[in-house]
Write a structure and sequence with these properties.
Layout lengths: L12 H32 L2 H12 L1 H13 L4 H24 L5 H25 L10 H30 L1 H21 L14 H14 L3 H15 L2 H11 L5 H23 L7 H21 L3 H29 L5 H30 L1 H37 L12
Helix pairs in contact: 1-2, 1-6, 1-7, 1-10, 2-5, 2-10, 2-14, 3-5, 3-8, 3-14, 4-5, 4-7, 5-14, 6-7, 6-11, 6-13, 9-13, 9-14, 9-15, 10-11, 10-14, 11-13, 12-13, 12-15, 13-14, 14-15
């Protein structure tokens, strides 16, 4: 296909088909995530309760994702995705039915959020590792990762806004029903894909041995470890915006679900902007410095939002927050996918996912508890300070990280073997 260079990975038919189906599915998923948090706050009026729901939805990433990563290096990733997404559709249907018939309680919501979290903790690392099987030219992989980030964030922009309007008009059950139907798009496209499975790997070790090997490799690697630790710290600090937002909307601005959806959509707008800028980059070179900038934007956005009492100014700060957190995650993912071997890809991606998404439930729980004591806005300020500390620590380590990364880039031909080629 004749496409601009910034869309070059869409020239690959397998990736293009999957991308279209995933777009529809993600739109429904963002609508559901917004509705779940709003429903939790409506049922209880408590930030601690919304924090607990957020914790239950994401805590499986800490325990399940490492196993999922090791498993995805041994079995068909396509079959895993088909199974998990089918079960997710069933879970969304149950959530819609219980909410519509008014049989939903905060306890039942917690169970369903936990079940969906288990499914997501398997799907996310498998999906990221699956990308390499959809791209014939490996040089287009960084662009595919950037376009995936655009996909996530464009749907994050539209999903919560549509969800907020739908909640106000028809209730939370409508969002859950739409999400259930949206899974059909990605399931249909997955069945049309013929991924490159490569040469089957001879399995001579157990799953647990593979798991330990992968984590030992990642946590002792001089590049992987500092990147995922920095990402985890920023995720811990930034992710609580989803659980604090309903309380801030009601208590600070005196508004309802519509404004809640708009604020979260602004996160998507900022993240989408950052993803587009990342997709336009011709190479992975220079991304270590980009990570410092995106992390700084996240800290500025959080602190600014926590102090703002203007809706329009708050929109801007949430956009900066979105550009910061998603820019950071996409940057780390791009660097890791560019330097790891295929036989370790699933396990390294699971480490990335565990630190990025697995840190979120801890942040949700801590922020929900703290907000009950000092208020949601002040809690958000504390989160911003934590993010700023993480970014500052990374900035001090950056020269050493670049020195460790340079020989890897040279080996892979990412930077030329000429004097002065130091852009990493």
């Amino acid at each position: 296909m004749t496409l601009p260079n910034s869309l070059r990975s869409l020239r690959h038919q397998n990736f293009r088909r999957y991308y279209v189906g995933q777009t529809v599915s993600l739109l429904g998923s963002w609508m559901q995530s917004t509705a779940v948090m709003w429903l939790a706050y409506r049922l209880t009026g408590s930030t601690a309760a919304t924090g607990m729901i957020g914790f239950l939805a994401m805590v499986p990433y800490i325990f399940i994702t490492p196993l999922a990563g090791a498993l995805s290096d041994r079995v068909s990733r396509q079959k895993v995705l088909l199974t998990v997404l089918s079960l997710s559709a069933i879970n969304a249907t149950a959530l819609a039915g219980l909410t519509y018939t008014q049989h939903i309680t905060i306890e039942v919501l917690g169970v369903l959020a936990l079940l969906q979290g288990i499914l997501n903790s398997i799907e996310v690392p498998t999906r990221h590792a699956f990308f390499v099987q959809l791209i014939e030219n490996k040089e287009d992989l960084p662009n595919a990762i950037a376009l995936n980030s655009i996909n996530i964030n464009s749907t994050r922009l539209m999903g919560p806004a549509i969800g907020g309007l739908l909640i106000a008009a028809l209730g939370e059950a409508a969002c859950f029903a739409v999400n259930s139907i949206s899974f059909l798009a990605v399931l249909i496209q997955l069945r049309r894909i013929s991924p490159n499975e490569g040469v089957p790997k001879a399995i001579t070790t157990g799953l647990f041995t593979d798991l330990v090997e992968g984590w030992r490799f990642g946590l002792t690697h001089p590049v992987i470890c500092p990147l995922v630790v920095t990402l985890g710290a920023i995720s811990f600090a930034v992710s609580p915006y989803t659980v604090l937002m309903p309380a801030i909307v009601v208590q600070t601005f005196g508004k309802g679900a519509e404004l809640n959806g708009l604020f979260i959509s602004c996160v998507g707008l900022g993240a989408l902007t950052g993803a587009i800028l990342l997709a336009r980059r011709p190479s992975v070179r220079g991304l270590t410095g980009w990570l410092w900038m995106t992390g700084s934007l996240a800290a500025i956005g959080i602190i600014g939002f926590s102090l703002s009492r203007s809706e329009w100014l708050s929109f801007l700060f949430m956009a900066l927050t979105g550009m910061g957190i998603m820019g950071t995650s996409a940057t780390v993912n791009t660097i890791l996918q560019s330097i790891i071997e295929d036989d370790m890809r699933g396990r390294v991606v699971s480490i990335y996912t565990t630190f990025f998404v697995g840190a979120a439930p801890l942040g949700h729980l801590a922020a929900g508890w703290l907000a009950e004591r000092i208020g949601a806005p002040r809690t958000f300020t504390v989160c911003g300070v934590v993010c700023a500390i993480a970014v500052t620590s990374y900035a001090f380590y950056l020269p050493r990280l670049r020195a460790q990364l340079r020989p890897i880039y040279l080996k892979r031909g990412i930077i030329p073997t000429t004097p002065g080629a130091t852009d990493q």
